[in-house]
Design goal:
alpha/beta, 6-stranded mixed sheet, binds ligand MGD, binds iron/sulfur cluster, binds molybdenum atom
């Protein structure tokens, strides 16, 4: 980084705090100085300059740096984005964009961006590339699609993606091309949570009405750092309004620090705590019998099941004193139904996480909070028309089912990343030899990086569509440059979130695409043409969106005038006098369906494996200033988080002779990495933690370079036994001086 690119940490903090960080970015870009922010949310408020070429235009968009997709207003001058402001019309994100969103212009103007198609020349991962024209790249890709399909059937291809508004076109392409393999980031993230809540409420996960809640128990979630809008915003307001926040986390996160209570629970024992809360609530009859009778099924089964899960027993498991558990149960029941166990997001924790999260869902059911203010909200009735609907062709020679079907009894139908990786490595039950990866970086997102490397090495052709040379792109055969979100048109999307309810959003290019970048929709369309599947992509995005919004003039108008359509319909009572979508039509406190499948109808506690002597449990978590491996090459954000030290408790550090800042070696059963120690009281003595996204192998990321260590390298690959979601907290490590 040149000196002129550097901004002091204090200065960026001050700017970020005042919402003016992007003014600093515009200086860096050499663009004209940003003007005072237009916070009105009206686009006709365009600031005019007497000099016409300096006209400052404002354009709606939405952020793409994490799954939240917050509303943005881009300020554009001479076809350059000079700053990004929040779109205050957006009910979900309101007047907020976080540090990452603020620093987002840097992704658009990152000199490290991929600029044209690249074909691997040397060995995989060697970094030798040949520039191709788009014609050459697409011809080659189409040939490989055909060759691999001819040799191994169409299911010899696997399509994967991250959270993005065009990802469903990859899904569409996979369907019409004829592959069953669509395992994606969701199986590294929230599958176990979705499964658990779905099987209790018939839809999953319900949306937490944080704003109106009086009592929130947050287990294994970190809303003031791992931001989810509007929950992160509303949690602050709810606390100011007198709500109680209670956090269970082996780390004292920023959320734990702001909570009225923080319990540094023993990792993996949360279900014991929740079962004991249920035991007290049922034993002391603190539930609402009318709600239980009318809206739930399986109460007696549950009551019988939790009888032996006493607070005294749970105290031994969790380390949380029995009297505290009793008090919390009473306070929680007292606040119900405006009380909740927060439904989280990332739930890729343990091999029994589905059951852990199902126990959270059942406790919510017992609190009678579903579909009521301050509780868990149901899905609102807002859908777009299915545009350009299609019937995927049937391919006679395809295998009878997905290669990773039956790896777990409650999988979702796209398949899971970790089970698919094993399929590729072992070529069992059949070979999968092609990978199409869009907006995702499995080399950093999947645990046990060596195995991901093996998987890629065992593939005949890997295509990566990314904006930068991620580690996965670095290991690919063909790398295709994508435009940033600010340069592309997207279909309309519906998103429902927390207390904000549902909204519709979409984007048009804010500035023309740079270099030779091409949106994945266009790439797939061109490939489809070459593969005689053109009729399935025979439209453009304007037409597609037009069809999605047919007969919805109020949505179109709001998108145009406000950059978002907020669905101002009732949030509560959506299921009043209606059956839920569970098999019983009620909230299932005990599941007959699980019983039929030979599974436990009620969640049974499984004690986590004890931490072996001289070892630590490795957990992962997030920082407010970066997203996984997405924002890591952003030099502005790197000033806040420049590497990923290992969090370790002072007593543990002392025992093994390690001081703060020491160079250390961390080893697991699959690998070892070097990093530095961050000795801190903010973590339990038996647990260590590292952030993800560092320790890259790609030479194409000059800002982050090879800084820090890859936690993906260190993590063992365990899966949830019910639905094959990755289980990222089942790795034990040893730590010593380097
Ligand atoms: N160690 C560890 N592993 C984890 C987690 C963890 O906390 N720790 N978290 C898990 C979770 S919850 C998740 S959701 C997954 C996420 O894993 P991924 O879905 O792989 O997400 P990211 O790491 O954000 O990688 C996003 C990729 O998309 C690229 N990209 C960004 N913008 C664009 C764009 O506009 N177009 C295109 N084509 N590409 C773009 C980025 O350069 C990056 O390579 O990781 C999981 N794995
Ligand atoms: N700033 C920022 N915001 C983000 C993202 C990002 O990368 N950066 N990513 C987005 C995505 S994809 C997701 S999925 C969400 C994830 O956001 P969250 O769902 O909040 O998940 P994490 O922050 O990954 O992990 C939650 C916490 O679980 C704790 N933990 C570990 N083991 C245990 C345990 O056994 N019991 C308990 N009680 N706690 C435990 C960890 O210490 C960590 O603090 O955030 C989203 N928002
Ligand atoms: S939370 Fe931050 S990074 Fe995520 S979409 Fe919103 S502004 Fe962007
Ligand atoms: Mo996630």
């Amino acid at each position: 980084m040149s000196n002129s690119n550097k901004m002091s940490r204090r200065r960026f903090l001050a700017l970020a705090g005042s919402g003016l960080a992007s003014a600093g970015i515009s200086e860096h870009l050499g663009a004209l100085k940003a003007r005072a922010s237009n916070q009105s949310g009206k686009l006709d408020d365009v600031v005019q300059n007497p000099n016409k070429k300096d006209r400052l235009e404002s354009k709606f968009s939405f952020c793409n740096f994490c799954p939240n997709k917050c509303g943005l207003i881009a300020r554009v001058q001479n076809k350059r984005v000079i700053r990004l402001d929040p779109n205050p019309n957006h009910a979900k994100s309101r007047g907020m964009i976080c540090a990452r969103g603020n620093a987002g212009i840097q992704q658009l103007y990152d000199p490290d961006r991929l600029k044209y198609p690249l074909l691997r020349k040397g060995k995989r991962g060697e970094g030798k590339w040949q520039r191709l024209s788009w014609e050459e790249a697409l011809d080659l890709a189409a040939k490989k699609f055909r060759d691999i399909a001819d040799k191994y059937t169409r299911c010899g291809w696997w399509f994967t993606w991250g959270a993005d508004a065009q990802a469903h076109f990859v899904h569409r392409f996979a369907n019409v091309f004829g592959s069953y393999h669509k395992a994606n980031h969701e199986s590294l993230c929230f599958w176990t949570r979705n499964r658990g809540f779905l099987d209790v409420f018939g839809e999953g996960p319900p949306y937490p009405d944080v704003l109106n809640s009086k009592y929130i128990i947050m287990i294994g979630a970190n809303r003031f750092e791992s931001l989810i809008t509007p929950d992160s915003i509303d949690l602050m307001t709810a606390i100011q309004n007198g709500a109680k926040l209670l956090v269970l986390d082996p780390r004292r996160t920023k959320t734990a620090a702001r909570a009225q209570e923080w319990h540094p629970v023993k990792p993996g024992t949360d279900m014991a705590f929740v079962l004991a809360l249920m035991q007290v609530i049922i034993k002391e009859e603190l539930y609402n019998p009318e709600i239980i009778l009318k809206e739930t099924t399986g109460f007696n089964d549950l009551a019988e099941h939790v009888r032996s899960y006493t607070p005294e027993w749970a105290a031994r498991e969790t380390g949380i004193p029995a009297r505290e558990i009793k008090r919390i149960a009473r306070e929680l029941a007292q606040a119900a139904p405006a009380a909740m166990v927060y439904p989280g997001r990332r739930s890729s924790f343990y091999t029994n996480s589905t059951e852990i999260w199902r126990s959270f869902a059942i406790l919510n059911g017992l609190l009678g909070n579903f579909d009521r203010p301050g509780g868990l909200l149901a899905r609102q009735d807002l859908s777009l028309h299915e545009a350009k609907s299609y019937l995927a062709p049937w391919y006679e020679d395809n295998p009878s089912e997905r290669a990773d079907a039956h790896k777990a009894p409650l999988m979702f139908e796209d398949g899971a990343m970790l089970t698919m990786r094993d399929v590729v490595i072992n070529e069992d039950p059949y070979p999968v030899k092609g990978l199409f990866a869009y907006h995702t970086n499995p080399m950093q997102a999947m645990p046990n990086r060596d195995k991901t490397r093996k998987m890629l090495e065992n593939m005949e052709f890997v295509i990566s569509v990314d904006i930068k040379m991620s580690d996965t792109a670095w290991m690919s055969d063909l790398v295709l440059p994508a435009p940033s979100a600010l340069e592309r048109r997207d279909p309309a999307s519906v998103k429902q979130a927390g207390s904000a309810g549902a909204c519709v959003y979409s984007r048009d290019p804010v500035v023309p695409p740079l270099f030779e970048s091409r949106p994945v929709f266009e790439i797939l369309k061109d490939l489809a043409k070459r593969l005689d599947l053109g009729k399935f992509f025979d439209f453009d995005l304007k037409e597609y969106r037009e069809e999605q919004l047919k007969g919805m003039p109020e949505v179109k108008k709001a998108l145009q005038e406000k950059g978002v359509y907020n669905h101002n319909a009732s949030l509560y009572g959506l299921y009043k006098d209606k059956s839920l979508r569970t098999s019983s039509g009620k909230i299932e406190l005990s599941s007959a369906r699980y019983k039929e499948k030979g599974l436990n109808p009620v969640p049974v506690y499984k004690r986590p494996q004890e931490v072996p002597e001289n070892s630590f449990r490795l957990v992962v978590g997030r920082n407010a200033c970066y997203t996984n491996s997405n924002t890591q090459n952003n030099w502005l954000l790197l000033q806040f988080v420049s590497d990923n030290p290992l969090w370790i408790n002072p007593r543990a550090a002392k025992r093994i002779g390690i001081r703060d800042g020491d160079e250390i070696k961390v080893s697991s059963s699959v690998s070892q990495v070097r990093t530095v120690a961050k000795v801190t009281q903010d973590i339990r003595e038996d647990t260590v933690c590292m952030w993800s996204g560092f320790g890259n192998i790609s030479d194409g990321l000059t800002q982050v370079g090879h800084k820090g260590a890859s936690v993906a390298e260190l993590l063992e690959d365990h899966i949830d036994t019910l639905n094959a979601n990755a289980a990222l907290h089942e790795t034990f490590v040893k730590v010593k001086q380097a």
